[in-house]
Amino acid sequence: MRTVITLLRIGLTAGRATPGDRLRWWVLLAATATVAFVAVATTGTVATYEGREARSDARGVVLAEGKDAPLLYRPGGDSVGGNPVSVVFVHPMTEDAPVPAGVRRWPEPGEVLLSPELVRTGRAEGILTRYGTFSGTVRPDGLASPSERIAYVRVASLPSNHADWLPVADFGGRGGATGEMRYQWPLNSTLLVLWALAGVPALALAVVAARVGSRSRDRRSGLLQALGGVWWHRAVVNLGEAVFPAALGAALALVPYTIAARWNLRLPPTGYLLNHRDLWERWPAAAATAAGALALVLAIVVGTHRVHADGTSTRPASAASRVPRWRLVACGAGAGLVVMSQYAPRGTQLAIYCCGTVTMWAFLSSVVAVLTRRLGARLADSGKRAGHPGRLIGGRWTHAHPGVIVRLALAMVIGVGILTQIQIWTSRLGEQTQAVRATQERVKDTVTEIIVPAMTAAETDRFRAALPPGTALLTHTVDDPGHQEDPRVSIAGTCRDLRVVHIGCQGDAAHGNIQAQEMRRWYGTNLTFTPVPQVTVKPGGTQTLVVVTPEPGHLWAVKQAAYTLPTPAVQVNGLGGVWETTERARLVNWIRLFGGTGLFFVLLAGAVSSAAEFVRVRHVLAPLSVLTGNLRVFRSVTTWHLTVPMLIATVVTTVVTAWHAVFFIALVKAGTVSWPLLGAAAAVCAVTSIAVGLLAARAAVRAADQWVPTAD
Question: Among 253, 350, 552, 652, which residue has the fewest nearby CB atoms (within 10 Å)?
């Protein structure tokens, strides 16, 4: 025990006395905080999913088996501010009709309960009167999350045709996802994306932090082995050096979790509000996860400062030593998984692709180390033959210390990879959304799709009368749903209605009318306009109505008329199905959140690697001024040691990233690669490579002016 305490004291003292100790102290703190942050975020994600599912189950319907049900129930949809709204229509058949979680009692006929977030975001769009008279808000225990937009609408009277309404006996079942739960990603997919985009960069930062200022620790490890110390002696010293900043970093990672566990926290850019109660219940698990992240970082610190186990040398193992073959095989296996993912069963393709990507990134540093050593040897030989001292010294440094280039190149590889993945996911999930937005810019809000149940002629006339003057009411019918490629679609309306979209009474094609052109864009080229004497909604099932207003600005009136019908509308959308495409677009914001966090970690890792190299170069290069008699050698050495290898790594990074992105697009069969963005990222990496070389040379020049020999 006395030996352990002594070794810990040596490590604690070394952490305060090692050259560059302040840089490593802060970097270890930041690295542990990032790893613990991702780990704690994992716990928060699991807690949020469990809380959402529990509250969703509490409001899930239990269908009645007989005809006599205490409640009639029908889900529908709407949108406010481009965000989806879940609208639930109800009609209690008895005084003691069941209520879902979050509802104390059903409002009076014609009244509505709204979620707080819907009230906040929809007040300007008349949400308080759109579905009926506002009578209160839904309690938090009835919402999947505080940011959910949901409305419970009690219809004014029993619908004339309620055969397709759900007979509900009670609540507390698992059937029928409403609100946010309709488009919820599986938990495994969310965690996979979180760790692929943010977790891997955090681990890369931890590796960089562990090796910052590693020269003194490598020498100390060799000395301990020469004195007879074994692996655990060296491990205790290294732990003593790293434990304090790492523990502080793990504690700091719990600060944002604690804040989110006390107050509902909104996540930019998603706009999602976390439920603080879910996180508070998992606070002990979050603390345990942070402790696990601390242990992982300390294991990385110990594992990256090993010495030869064969006893033939006391020189510490580093990137300059022979790279184990299994690491190269593992990197190749990861690349193989990326290639083979598109041939795997459909349900496992994305998971295999992500696993291959993480494996390839994790072991890519070993491949870069092998290539960097060979590059350094060739540069040194070339400098020797040409009599170029800068190239000779820079090449030998690169051969002896490839870890510097590995860490800088790895930051570039992961950073450019994350940036490209964010762009591809954005293009993949946003193609239809961008098309919808383009349509909305052209037609504004003049074309609205309304999915309605069967209505009587009188109800149809009342609906038409509630629409703004001059509005066209059309029916949308798919005549041949079995023909998948280009089904025959019919838009029917009276002559007066068709004239609003410049269609003649014989169904003549539109000439220059933007609404008719956009309908043809979305409904297909096999679209016909059919004049009918009267617009009617066919009995049985549902039908889509198309409402065209002569000028924009009347969407609120159209929705008001639709949702206050005796037979209320099921769903109201803009042309192109805004509800679904908007929800798909919101997924892009989550990709940006995870990817942006990971990109920040990568940039931090690159900055740390550069700063650490400046510290090393400043001390090691300074004596060259005495041997050469000039300061120009510094720029030459740093150019061949840093700039040239990093420029080569930039080219390789760009090629690998492009290859990786093309395979992803082939896998999901959607999305595009932004070659200008990839080129811009490569240009930034190239400029960074040049800047690192110049700044390192400047640091060496400034140190050379103050250098004096020391007994080292």
Answer: 552
Number of residues assigned to the chain: 712
The pLDDT, as a whole number, for residue 216 is: 61
In this prediction, the residues of the chain whose per-residue pLDDT falls under 50 are 19, 311-316, 318-320, 579
Distance of CA 375 to the CA centre of its chain: 37
Burial class (CB in 10 A: 0-12, 13-18, 19+), 524: middle
Please enumerate in sequence order all residues whose Cβ is within 8 A of that of 267, keeping only pairs 6 or more positions apart, or say none.
273, 274, 593
| Token couple for 511 | 């000439």
CB 638 within 8 A of CB 693: yes
Per-residue pLDDT tens digits for 399-427: 877 777 777 777 777 788 888 877 777 77
Q: Cα(338)–Cα(333) distance, rounded to whole angstroms?
A: 9
Query: pLDDT per residue over 611-660, tens digit each?
Result: 776 666 666 666 665 555 556 777 788 788 888 888 888 888 888 888 88
In a domain, 507, yes or no: yes
Report strand pairing: 150-154 vs 133-137.
unpaired
CA distance 36 to 412: 23
Parallel/antiparallel/unpaired status of strands 133-137 and 111-114: parallel
Contact 161, 539 (CB under 8 A): yes
Q: What angle do CA 569, 131, 522 make, to 5 degrees?
A: 40
pLDDT of 42 reads 96
DSSP per-residue string spanning 212-227:
TTHHHHHHHHHHHHHT
What is the model's pLDDT at position 307?
57
Helical packing angle, 283-303 and 231-262, nearest 10°:
150
Together in a domain, 413 and 391 = yes
Q: Which domain holds residue 642?
A: 319-430+581-712
Of the candidates 300, 243, 242, 281, the residue with the CA atom closest to the CA atom of residue 35: 300
**Same domain assignment for residues 49 and 195:** yes
Give the position of tokens 């870069």. Answer: 368
pLDDT at 430: 59
Q: Scanning the structure block, which residue is given the tokens 């040398």?
A: 313
Residues 682 and 662 in one domain: yes
Judge whether 636 lies within some domain: yes
Q: How far apart are CA 535 and CA 532, in angstroms?
A: 7
Residues 6+ apart with CB under 8 A from 247: 32, 294
The whole-angstrom separation of Cα 451 and Cα 460 is: 13
**Token pair for 672:** 């595009």
SS (H, E, C) 359-374: HHHHHHHHHHHHHHHH
Does residue 50 share a domain with residue 197?
yes
Pull the structure tokens for residue 550: 């002569």
Q: 539 with 462, same domain?
A: yes
One-letter amino acid at 489 equals V
Rg of the Cα atoms in the chain:
33
Most distant pair of Cα atoms in the chain: their distance? 104
**AA identity, residue 265:** L
284 pairs with which residues across the strands?
none
261 Cβ neighbours under 8 A, 6+ residues apart: 276, 279, 280, 283, 286
